[in-house]
Task: inverse folding
């Protein structure tokens, strides 16, 4: 008897976050669970102007089918920005517009992964990537994150013992941990991957959102064409457009374009035109500064509240950018059990275990600060502290 | 030595149409090659109004992340329309918003197809579906199209000799052939598929564009939950939005939502809101009437010109709707060779062989009439007739 469904779909972890977000759809709950940017900064008026402009000036074209690669001036804009910000020379032909970085991940799986191919992922790792890659049934190897990035000793052993095609990581303000790789670590990772001919999939949705310290070069600067780089407009403009991009060398890009075409022909062309118009008519750097200023304050409020209210057994990360912070509870505590208690106290978070591919992390959890008003952050952390203390005793 | 790319990607036919469209990017060429709707009917002004309205009324929400399933009122609208037009009872929960029907095809492959699973496709079949499904490495079985739909005898034998999980077809004004299944044929197909427990993937992007004869019920009316139905706003509103949908029973939908989430989280939410606003603020039926009126005239002009200028050895379909018409040349002619001759005469078409999974169809070709001005159609057909006559002699 044949099975109705493909085997691959039975391997997929159900999105726990999705389920959680359903539970906490209650305005009384202070939610640190989401991964949403703060809508206060969505440039509604500017998007309206951009949209009116492209429709008025080129209406029939902006509503027609377009090329799989994406709108060329938008790809040129992205290439220019990499050069200005990072000194990275990338040609627009090496950029493919995708439906958010999430589609970039899917296209990477589709283009590169055979069943059983070795894939390294950070521990904890980004849930959306675990889900997306799982469809291609790779062999996951996870490498723990230390304070300054991935554990090099474990990475070295993993590369020696396994044939790993890809290493997926988020070196800037990682989701879920908020950890950033130091420059030394980036260089060391690049060197190890170069030696083992492993491609680094460098996901960088938060890179522009640094509010403490100095920017550090992308690993692509060191590993060059052995890197596939992902970016997104979701965190710096607006997520609804589902516009991101993936950067890869031309030999890889030729195949990825075929994968993109088979997946959905091309990304929403109207949205590409609107975003481009918005970017050239506005000062995006000023816009990003405003976001960073507020996220920085929200992060500070959360870190200070944790220091004030949490018991000393709790350890936590102190992110220099991005949207998330990571909590490690004493070993014997379960964040899943804590979740039910927390909901009763009207505060929510994401339990950590779904971010592990090896069943670990039961005593960890993720907190988001970008989408919670400053004044609510202290209140929520206070409630959470109460729940943690109760669980410890 | 491991291979850089996934095996699946080496199986994919390069999009011939894509290559062709590059060749004919010359305004002097009369192109019957594209598959584009006529941009004259894109509701530019109405889309502008809808966009301004949703941004003014609910700006921060329309720019935020949203649900994987899609905007509920839009799914309700689609469900209502199926009931009004077809008497089909579909609940909004059975509808998933996708990036055009193309993504629907990819999600079906992802959710249902294991390598080697039997898949039936029409001969000739829709190229985008062949490409999309090829990524999941099914065993293709093609069944020829007759004037009133698929050849039932061959279908019966194919089902008897192979374990076929899916049958993909376009019963209304098929791409590429323009053929429509008769009602009797639809009933017979449903019966055969029911007996073999094969799911019919009913792709219906052109169903609303009938300009001759009466609407015929969808096969879903007869095969019920053993059907997966695909629809799209690309041909009735505008393609740039990349908004389509897929309808399936809840047991299937639960899995397809996981596939969609892993693929790109959700479709462009801003675009969903704009399209919905457009649909409720405007008379879409009147809009579709205008499209049908013009496409009908364009189709008539093409059919009449073919009758007048083509030599009698050429056979062709006379579509009752949609955008395409299919030409069969004498067996010894190659439409690929004809293509090069035609380009010199400044007329273009799509050679037929890429629409076959079995290497057949070398003497066939596809003509599009929807995106060519009426006065150019006669001129282009005249040039093409000249080329065909030269090739015959």
Result:
């Amino acid at each position: 008897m044949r099975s109705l469904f493909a085997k691959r779909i039975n391997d997929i972890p159900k999105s726990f976050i999705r389920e959680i977000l359903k539970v906490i759809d209650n305005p009384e709950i202070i939610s640190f669970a989401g991964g949403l940017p703060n809508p206060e900064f969505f440039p509604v008026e500017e998007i309206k102007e951009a949209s009116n402009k492209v429709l008025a000036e080129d209406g029939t074209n902006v509503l027609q089918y377009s090329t799989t690669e994406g709108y060329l001036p938008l790809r040129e804009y992205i290439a220019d920005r990499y050069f200005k910000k990072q000194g990275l020379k990338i040609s627009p032909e090496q950029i493919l517009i995708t439906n958010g970085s999430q589609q970039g991940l899917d296209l990477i799986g589709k283009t590169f992964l055979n069943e059983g191919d070795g894939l390294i992922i950070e521990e904890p790792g980004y849930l959306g990537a675990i889900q997306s890659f799982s469809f291609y049934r790779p062999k996951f190897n996870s490498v723990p994150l230390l304070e300054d990035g991935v554990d090099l000793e474990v990475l070295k052993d993993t590369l020696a013992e396994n044939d790993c095609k890809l290493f997926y990581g988020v070196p800037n303000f990682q989701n879920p941990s908020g950890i950033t790789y130091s420059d030394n670590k980036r260089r060391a990772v690049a060197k190890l991957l170069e030696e083992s001919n492993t491609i680094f999939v460098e996901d960088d949705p938060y890179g522009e959102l640094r509010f403490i310290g100095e920017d550090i070069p992308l690993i692509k600067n060191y590993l060059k064409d052995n890197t596939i780089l992902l970016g997104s407009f979701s965190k710096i403009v607006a997520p609804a457009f589902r516009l991101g991009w993936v950067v890869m060398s031309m030999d890889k890009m030729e195949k990825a374009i075929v994968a993109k075409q088979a997946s959905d022909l091309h990304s929403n062309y109207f949205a590409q035109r609107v975003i481009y118009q918005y970017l050239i008519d506005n000062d995006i750097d000023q816009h990003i500064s405003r976001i960073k200023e507020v996220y920085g304050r929200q992060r500070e409020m959360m870190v200070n509240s944790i220091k004030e209210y949490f018991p000393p057994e709790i350890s936590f990360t102190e992110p220099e950018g991005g949207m998330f912070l990571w909590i490690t509870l004493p070993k014997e505590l379960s964040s899943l059990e804590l979740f039910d208690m927390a909901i009763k106290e009207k505060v929510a978070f994401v339990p950590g275990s779904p971010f592990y591919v090896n069943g670990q992390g039961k005593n960890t959890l993720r907190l988001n600060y970008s989408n919670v008003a400053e004044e609510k952050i202290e209140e929520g952390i206070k409630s959470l502290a109460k729940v943690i203390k109760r669980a410890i005793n």
